[in-house]
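Intended use. Records such as the Glycosyltransferase family 4 protein entry shown here are meant for training and evaluating sequence-to-structure methods. They are not intended to support clinical decisions.
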Amino acid sequence: MRIAILAHVRQRIAQPFAGGMESHCWYLAAGLQDRGHDVVLFASGDSDPRFLIDPVLAEHYERTFPWAEHRGSAPLIAHLDAGYAAACDRIAAGGFDVVHNNSLHRFPLEQRRTAMAPTVTSLHVPPYDALYWFVAASPAPRHRLTVTSSRQLAAWWPQGAPPEISVLHNGIDVARWPFTSRGYGSAMWCGRITPNKGPHFAAAAARRAGMALTLFGAIEDPDYWRAEVEPLLGGGIAYGGHLDGEALAAELGRASLFVFTPCWDEPFGLVAAEAMACGLPVAAFDMGAAREVIGEAGVFAPAGDVPALADAMRAAIEIPRDVPRDRVMRLFTRDRWLDRCESLYREVARDPDAAVAA
């Protein structure tokens, strides 16, 4: 199939990934290419050159509108609207069999556009006002939507979802997250360093549990880093930088525990699945889809409760490493995920009435 993947353009679709959305889009493009599809990635022009890039913007907008400036910015909104309007026009004229929309922008959701190019939209966030009403009006015979968890489905459609909506769990390439049979007693946290990811809670709980912890990830919010995270470093708590996938997998293989601290309604938690693939049990805040993803491979604490999280760390480290790995192999592999993506593409690209019935 000829497939257009429309990406979010806040960050590059390239390693080291800024977060789960960038990782999801990269692995989607790479996986579909590996399966022989003709893929064009509509993303920022500074994304990974291994893909055929049709740039929505010349460069990712975090570079043009840094973190402290872009929230609610009218110039940024105009910048994005112009980029996505032109990209959607090029997709409509490009002879694509299907569009996989990961953009979180309103234009690709419009029924006049999905009528021209069969579309699968993956939602990676909880509902928010700027997008909610466009999503609600978008289901159509040639437009299917997915969410990453049952928890996210209930958040978007509390009264029940229409037939065009389904849960599509994320999948990971387990070959890139190799299992190791033992760690060396330390804990690990990784993700975007921002308040809604809660790394300061992980550091405080590790100190209370008497366990060494290393934090990895991009420092997205420098003010938060300086005020809440950096003062906790030292005495076994360290920052290991922002690593690419291969280096991060090696660090996970040496650790004995993963700490997952969402402070928002986390739709999935890709980093937890990656850690589990390497054999790490998880101590987690019970937020969003954490239980749905981690299940028997972890121990849970109420969000924001540092003493309870420290207790969860002590308990979770005793879970055998084959338990998290087996859960990933059953539920969250790349092949399982890509099989489902291809099935959705076939459904939405064939006869519209049949697609809705399916």
